[in-house]
């Protein structure tokens, strides 16, 4: 009997019979990325406004209306933002970098990359919280 | 396999033509272990709600007509294993004709606009069209897209951006890779919202045919940035 | 769709009417393998191809249609290529050709996307040419003028729950086969023999309707995939690559290799009819598994080859039978399944039926391998009945009966019983069908009541022809006449509606030397 020509083994196809279970990584990461982005924008707006009203003569009327803006960076409620800002920046930046890198042909697993980025973002948050608390 | 399982399902019911409010009906179904959502729907239809409207045909994941949302995720009813508690809804964001059947008119319009027959420079010569075997296989792989619209349903960009959907990008990619086709497929992709994709890979995760529309889009993006001659996307490695 | 494309090219106004979604066809589900004379195998030629076709058809083929098939198949393959289908190849212009069951030479083309690719490229080609396409519209009946020429088609628009009539000069019925009359089948849920029944009621002749091809192995569970073809045992062993190799082995519940009782020479590499019958007999005689199948033991040596060649099948085996089965490391359950209706509407060399203006193409025809009043009123009655029988239950009864008596194992008494039961159905059961859903939109029960009329008609024709054919040939196995009888039965059976019942007529085979059938005049071209 003729010898079978050997064939390179391929990985088995996916079993796609349990798709409704577990996380839909793409939808989740898109939502988190958007929330993180909005959060960053909010922070930047408030922070810049806080600085601007102090240093800009033109905005003096605004400062009279909202005197709390001048020392917003010292207020405790604003510090809460720090706990979320670091994770937001880390997540948003890393995720956007991941998209960029994939556009150029690097293959990244959506599963693995999601958890890694989330892990790094959480770590950044803990680091920021620790830093804040220990002052 | 003689083991059985039970499931409690909530099924979306609506009849736009009758101008009634939509509702969820609940049913209990038992069947063999490993039964699919389609088996559950057929059991409900045959034994409990004879007026249930649902779509299916091939039962084997090839015709792409049985797409529904199970617990919020778009899946093929004939492939998805039933779980003990399920909410079954029609595929969003398509208009609903009745119960679980959606209106695919807009989908067919998009396909028509894209003109997915190869635009040849000359008539087929009546002899073998030469294609490199590996490229040919890649084109064939892209051709396994069953038009089920599950990727379109699961795509976060389709809902709120001017983007036709991942499935259409796969078709454009298939034709872009076909040597005989001369149409400006990259331009078409951009016109139909390709740039709205932010690479979240929800489509890749959901695709019942194991395709990656996101990879097909990435090929287009590379082409847009760096010019033609790049390898195409398609099946995940 | 191919007819639509050609008609459009010639300037006709064309509408394609699909019973369900346009992609819900048997072609979609198929492996898309295409036997054709590409001219790339120097050992093959048209005559060998022709001989293989006749052999595969157990000698029943209409020789003229078979000749046309062998001559024109490659042109159709090029058509598909021109529309964007890529046939797999070994080199840029060297097709990859395989051997099919019953083929003595390698000539079978295939594309990676199989039937999915074929249907997609054809849909796009058809729409590009401007053919209209409507979905969820079921052909229910056809209308004639006083001279008996077709004037149009009556359809139920299921999307809106209303009737529509298509006035047309020519109607091509391409509604597929009748696989749904069997419990375990490999076809799409829509293939309830509608076109066959409509043509039959309109007075068209059917031919070879007693022949149904069964695929010997198919999935056993879960219910949704039960009956889906798993091709043939040779694929699961070295036999696929080497004619002297071993196919995958079939074992009954006791672990016996039962094919040795039936076909010790070809074993599991034999033809589909012998294999399917052997498996069915094991199951009927109680040596099958609890789920109603037998075991297929694949050869692990060819696992990777199979995975590369048929990835979509590998995926289904993985998802339904597990990883070990997908790697061919353990046996899995299989059973025979009704696959392809080889008989159907009789056509001439130009696809014309015996009814003027009515054509047919594809699985609905037979041979390669009707003055009517509109019946809309009767078809509305199930909607108006408040209590009655559920059509789904009746459908199951027909399927059970057909599988038992008109399936792989037939005998005279059983076939006569079918005729009696169908008479009872027609008089007692069908008039009592009731549809409980009140919405006219996408009313599946309503569709099923119409399907039941068609299934009853088709099964009646199958049983009548099967009863007449007192021999065993191909998948038609008569326990009371178990031998092939070429002397008396080198003939085709033609079925035509005669009052309420099918009239069966035996006629000699159509040979190449016969004069081509007289074309039946269609409606005048002007005003079509």
What pattern of helices and strands is seen along the backbone of chain A?
HHHH
Q: Give start-end ranges of low-pLDDT stretches of chain A.
A: none
Approximately how much beta-strand content do the residues of chain C carry?
Answer: 15-25%
CATH architecture of chain A: Up-down Bundle
- Contiguous low-pLDDT stretches of chain C (5 residues minimum) are 370-376, 522-528
Distance between the termini of chain A: 80 Å
CATH superfamily of the domain at 216-336 in chain C: Succinate dehydrogenase/fumarate reductase flavoprotein, catalytic domain
Percent of residues of chain A in beta strands?
under 5%
Distance between the termini of chain C: 19 Å
Main interface by residue count: B-C, 71 and 74 residues
* Secondary-structure arrangement, i.e. CATH architecture of the domain at 216-336 in chain C: Alpha-Beta Complex
Q: Can you give the mean pLDDT of chain C?
A: 89
List the helices and strands and how they pair.
The complex is a heterotrimer of chains A (135), B (237) and C (528).
Chain A: H1 25-55, H2 60-65, H3 76-103, H4 110-133
Chain B: E1 4-13, E2 23-32, H1 37-48, E3 67-70, E4 73-76, E5 85-90, E6 96-98, E7 101-102, H2 105-114, H3 133-142, H4 150-154, H5 156-160, H6 166-177, H7 185-191, H8 202-206, H9 213-226
Parallel strand pairs in B: 1-5
Antiparallel strand pairs in B: 1-2, 3-4, 3-5, 6-7
Helix pairs in contact in B: 3-6, 6-7, 6-9
Chain C: H1 2-9, E1 15-17, H2 26-29, E2 34-35, H3 46-56, H4 63-82, E3 89-91, E4 94-95, E5 108-109, H5 114-128, E6 132-134, E7 137-144, E8 150-157, E9 162-167, E10 171-173, H6 194-201, E11 206-207, E12 212-218, E13 249-251, H7 259-262, H8 272-284, E14 294-297, H9 303-309, H10 311-321, H11 323-326, E15 332-341, E16 344-346, E17 358-360, E18 365-366, H12 376-384, H13 391-405, H14 412-429, H15 444-468, H16 486-489, E19 491-498, E20 501-508
Parallel strand pairs in C: 1-6, 10-17, 16-18
Antiparallel strand pairs in C: 2-5, 3-4, 7-8, 8-9, 11-16, 11-19, 12-15, 13-14, 14-15, 19-20
């Amino acid at each position: 009997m003729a010898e079978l020509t050997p064939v390179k083994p391929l990985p088995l196809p996916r079993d796609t019979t349990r798709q409704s279970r577990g996380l839909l990584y793409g939808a989740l990461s898109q939502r988190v990325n958007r929330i993180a982005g909005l959060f960053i924008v909010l922070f930047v707006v408030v922070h810049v406004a806080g600085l601007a009203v102090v240093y800009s003569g033109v905005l003096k009327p605004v400062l009279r209306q909202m005197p709390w803006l001048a020392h917003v960076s010292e207020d405790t409620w604003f510090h809460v933002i720090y706990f979320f800002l670091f994770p937001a920046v880390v997540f948003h930046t890393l995720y956007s970098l991941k998209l960029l890198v994939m556009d150029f042909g690097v293959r990244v697993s959506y599963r693995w990359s999601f958890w890694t980025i989330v892990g790094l973002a959480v770590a950044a948050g803990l680091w920021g919280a620790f830093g804040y608390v220990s002052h | 396999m003689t083991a059985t399982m039970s499931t409690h399902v909530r099924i979306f019911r609506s009849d736009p033509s009758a101008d009634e409010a939509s509702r969820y009906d609940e049913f209990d179904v038992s069947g063999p272990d490993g039964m699919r959502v389609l088996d559950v729907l057929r059991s409900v239809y045959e034994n409990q709600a004879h007026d249930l409207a649902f779509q299916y045909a091939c039962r084997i994941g090839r015709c792409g007509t049985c797409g529904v949302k199970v617990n919020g995720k778009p899946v093929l009813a004939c492939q998805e294993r039933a779980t003990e508690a399920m909410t079954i809804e029609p595929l969003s964001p398509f208009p609903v004709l009745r119960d679980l059947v959606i209106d695919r008119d807009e989908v067919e319009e998009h396909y028509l606009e894209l003109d997915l027959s190869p635009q040849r420079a000359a008539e087929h010569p009546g002899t073998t069209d030469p294609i490199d075997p590996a490229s040919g296989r890649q084109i064939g792989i892209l051709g396994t897209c069953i038009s089920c619209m599950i990727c379109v349903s699961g795509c976060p960009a389709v809902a709120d951006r001017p983007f036709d959907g991942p499935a259409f990008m796969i078709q454009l990619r298939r034709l872009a890779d076909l040597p005989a086709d001369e149409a400006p497929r990259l331009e078409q992709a951009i016109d139909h919202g390709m740039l709205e994709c932010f690479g979240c890979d929800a489509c890749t995760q959901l695709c019942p045919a194991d395709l990656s529309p996101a990879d097909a889009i990435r090929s287009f993006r590379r082409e847009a940035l760096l010019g033609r001659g790049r390898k195409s996307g398609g099946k995940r490695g | 769709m191919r007819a639509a494309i050609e008609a459009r090219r010639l300037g006709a106004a064309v509408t394609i009417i699909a019973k369900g979604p346009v992609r819900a066809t048997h072609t979609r589900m198929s492996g898309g393998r295409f036997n054709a004379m590409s001219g790339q195998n120097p050992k093959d030629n048209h005559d060998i191809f022709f001989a293989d076709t006749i052999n595969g058809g157990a000698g029943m083929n209409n020789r003229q249609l078979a000749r046309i098939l062998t001559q024109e198949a490659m042109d159709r393959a090029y058509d598909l290529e021109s529309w964007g289908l890529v046939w797999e190849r070994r080199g840029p212009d060297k097709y990859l050709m395989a051997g099919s069951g019953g083929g003595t030479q390698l000539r079978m083309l295939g594309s990676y996307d199989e039937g999915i690719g074929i249907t997609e490229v054809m849909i796009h080609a058809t729409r590009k040419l401007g053919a209209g396409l409507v979905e969820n519209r079921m052909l229910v009946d056809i209308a004639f003028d006083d001279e008996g020429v077709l004037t149009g088609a009556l359809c139920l628009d299921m999307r809106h729950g209303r009737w529509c009539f298509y006035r047309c000069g020519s109607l091509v019925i391409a509604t597929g086969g009748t696989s749904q009359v069997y419990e375990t089948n490999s076809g799409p849920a829509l293939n309830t023999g509608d076109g066959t029944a409509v043509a039959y009621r309109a007075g068209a002749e059917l031919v070879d309707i007693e022949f149904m091809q069964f695929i010997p192995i198919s999935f056993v569970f879960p219910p949704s995939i039960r009956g889906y073809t798993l091709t043939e045992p040779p694929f699961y062993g070295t036999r696929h690559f080497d004619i002297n190799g071993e196919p995958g082995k079939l074992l009954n519940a006791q672990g016996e290799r039962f094919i040795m009782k039936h076909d010790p020479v070809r074993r599991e590499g034999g033809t589909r009819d012998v294999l399917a019958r052997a498996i069915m007999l094991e199951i009927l005689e109680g040596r099958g598994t609890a789920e109603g199948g037998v075991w297929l033991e694949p050869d692990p040596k060819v696992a990777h080859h199979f995975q590369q060649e048929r990835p979509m099948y590998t995926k289904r085996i993985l998802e339904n039978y597990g990883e070990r089965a997908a790697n061919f490391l353990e046996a899995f359950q299989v059973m025979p399944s009704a696959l392809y209706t080889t008989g159907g509407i009789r056509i001439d060399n130009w696809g014309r039926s015996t009814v003027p203006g009515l054509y047919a193409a594809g699985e609905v025809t037979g041979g390669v391998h009707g003055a009517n009043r509109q019946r809309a009123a009767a078809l509305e009655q199930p909607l108006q009945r408040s209590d009655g029988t559920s059509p789904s239950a009746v459908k199951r009864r027909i399927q059970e009966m057909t599988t038992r008596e008109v399936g792989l194992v037939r005998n005279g008494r059983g076939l006569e019983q079918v005729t009696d039961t169908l008479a009872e159905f027609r008089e007692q059961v069908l008039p009592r069908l009731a549809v409980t859903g009140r919405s006219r939109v996408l009313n599946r029960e309503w569709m099923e009541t119409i399907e039941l009329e068609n299934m009853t008609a088709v099964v009646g024709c199958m049983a009548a022809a099967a009863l007449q054919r007192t021999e065993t040939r191909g998948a038609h196995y008569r326990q009371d006449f178990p031998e092939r009888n070429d002397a008396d039965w080198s003939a085709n059976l033609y079925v035509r509606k005669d009052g309420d019942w099918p009239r069966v007529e035996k006629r000699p085979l159509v040979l190449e030397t016969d004069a081509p059938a007289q074309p039946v005049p269609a409606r005048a071209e002007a005003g079509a």
